Amino acid sequence: MPVPDPAASRAVLIGVDTYRGSDLADLPPVAAGTEGLRRLLTDARWWGLPAANCRVLHNPRDAGEVEDAVHAAAVAARDTLLVYFAGHGSLTDGGLGLQLSRCAENRPSQTVRYDRLRKILQSERMARNQVVLLDCCFSGAAVAGAMGPADTGTRVPAVVDSTFVMTSCPMHRRSYAPPGETRPVFTGALLDTLERGVPDAPDPLPMGHVFRRVSELVHERGMPPPQRLSINDDIALVRNHAGHARPPEPLRPPWWARRGTRLLGRVAAVATVGGFALSPFLQTPPASHSQPHPALTRSTDPCSLLSPAALARFGATELDTAYGGFDRCDVLVHRADGTDVDVGVDFDPGQPSDLPTSTVRGSVRVSEEPTDSGRCTRLLLPSGTDVTVAVTARTEGEGHAHAPLCALADAGADRAATVLDEGRARPRRAAFPPGSLFHQDACALLTAKALEVVPGAGATVPDPDFGRWSCDWRSATSGLEVTVSFDRGSPLRATYGTITRIAGRSALVRPDGPDENAWQVKVVQRTYRVGRGRTRIETLDVLVGGEADEETLRRTATALATAAAARLPAAES
Asked: Of 347, 339, 349, which is closest to residue 408 (Cα–Cα)?
């Protein structure tokens, strides 16, 4: 049995993670869970649903937007239709309500009545098969068919032929999205099951088997049991990868190969287009600058400025929250022509005073950097801050000749500028463990004694980047430059240098730069897992460059990395 025809199928994924001005708590895991489901459904290794056929409604404005999207998908789908909702739910006289962001304002338009969606799915659907997934409190009301209060006995059918409905909990129970977790409990179990498959189940994976496995995973967490109502347990959405080799990840160069030399880091990059004094972390900003805005601090989540949905028209999008420095977030855009474009946002200390203004978005000035081969950058300068937000679209190889890099950069910058102008930049959703480099100060890892291996460097004042997660020293006599920074990416590979041990940790030593005029040492501090079971590492990076022979650069970088690593907490794995 083949998977449903992607071209003849549709999906509507509704995720509500922000509840404004209400007693209802925000649900940060919902956004990541919804995005994870979109990413899996559009991946050809599981289903391959075209991006245009998978509509994501992130915090939709009202019930009409939801109903219109479901109606459009219902009349367009001929093979399989999927509707997914995650957010708060309620039980009222009208039955199960799916609550939107402003539901506490007592506006009917802020609650999507499930019975209205059910009527749309019954009367308008053209698809052979239909799947409804509900992750909200009291969602079992959809399965029980109780479209009125429990004491009325009113019963309304919840499904029609060839439909599979699965809910996160019984009618009078609650669902859970625990703080600090990346996905709601039910959605997390669903994604784990769809991604990894179910042993001894058919391929593609029937929803009946999915339900049983999700129920097992939820039971292990001690959570309320999922519910289902099915006319056809054999409806399948994705391939069953259980018992097979894990599908390879799309090719993506290691982070250090994509980012190039970190020597002088982002400080130099911003200085080249405007120039500014030393970081405000070391001195009082000039009188013309205000103090850093509270919303753009070390705790600010750069991912809150990005939106995969804002870039979806360019291709399938994938949010990567754990790549590069801690002041960075990326959305990978997988274009139909096979080109992968990375749209990233990161923070730089200071605002160059002479940057030309290209456009203004409310209180945010936007400056366009000259387009370079393979990259296009927009610099955002919010008023009342002393931080520059860089939004860059970049690609590798020959793809930059055809990829609309500046259009992607503009779309990312528009979204980031809107968030900044409205003051909606959020703190990070998940806490970093005590051993994470997130909590460290790169400038404090090299003492004057350790810097004696670089003549003239110990007497200079270090220059920190945003958050003090990167720091530079320039020798006053030898011309050598040193950068200590923290990074995140894929595990070390011998392909990119020599694997060794430093301060009891795995490390990689390699030349850096086209002329090998710099050497870099990467020391692993922490190993962890991200979505789909991918392994990532945090590394302490020490880079030494300048006019010196190769052996001197390598030996100096190794000595400094050893000294810096010795000042870190115990490594984690």
From this structure: 339
Helix or strand (DSSP H, E) at 33: helix 28-42
- What's the one-letter identity of residue 225? P
57-115 pLDDT, tens per residue? 999 999 999 999 999 999 999 999 999 999 999 987 768 999 999 876 567 788 999 99
Sheet holding 227-230, edge to edge: 54-58, 10-15, 80-86, 129-135, 163-167, 227-230
Q: What is the pLDDT of residue 6?
A: 92
For residue 293, give both structure tokens: 């805005």
**Runs of H (alpha helix) within 80-184:** 114-124, 140-144
Are residues 265 and 472 in contact, defined by beta-carbon separation less than 8 angstroms? yes
Pair of tokens at residue 481? 């430059």
What sign has the CA pseudo-torsion 342, 344, 348, 354?
positive
Task: Please give the biggest Cα pair distance in the chain.
Answer: 86
pLDDT at position 231 over 90: no
Integer CA distances (angstroms), 238 to 12, 87, 202, 475, 548, in order: 16, 24, 11, 57, 56
Query: Of 391, 390, 420, 379, which Cα lies nearest the Cα of 293?
Result: 420
Is the preceding peptide bond at 370 cis, omega within 30 degrees of 0? no
Distances (CA, A) of 439 to 157, 430, 442, 453: 54, 13, 10, 27
| Dist. CA 274–CA 264, nearest whole Å | 15
Rounded Cα–Cα distance for residues 464 and 483 (Å): 9
Locate 325 and state its tokens: 């420095």
Helix axes 114-124, 63-76, angle to 10 degrees: 20
Cα dist from 136 to 14, 54, 87, 119, 484, whole Å? 12, 21, 5, 20, 45
**Comparing C-alpha atoms, which of 407, 349, 400 is closest to residue 375?**
400
Place of tokens 């990840």: 249
Helix (H) or strand (E) holding 226: none
CA-to-CA separations, 62 to 57, 73, 107, 419, in angstroms, rounded: 11, 18, 9, 20
Question: Which of 205, 194, 277, 164 has its CA nearest to residue 4?
Answer: 205
Strand partners, 483: 472, 543
pLDDT at 266 over 60: no
Q: What would the mean pLDDT of 3-31 be, rounded to a whole number?
A: 89
- 14 strand-pairing partners: 57, 85
Residue 54: what are its φ and ψ, rounded to 5°?
-120, 100
- Residue-wise pLDDT tens digits, 168-224: 999 988 898 877 788 899 999 999 999 989 988 998 999 999 999 999 999 888 889
Per DSSP bridges, beta strands 10-15 and 54-58 are parallel
Structure tokens at 421: 């102008």
**CB atoms near residue 513 (< 10 Å):** 15
Tokens (6 digits) for 560 = 């400094």
Rounded CA separation 251/490 (Å): 12
Distance CA 443, CA 440 (A): 9
What six digits make up the tokens of 544?
């030494």
Count of alpha carbons within 13 Å of 322, Cβ hemisphere only?
23
Query: Are 392 and 328 a contacting pair, CB within 8 Å?
Result: no
> What is the C-alpha to C-alpha distance for residues 349 and 367, in angstroms, rounded to an integer?
16
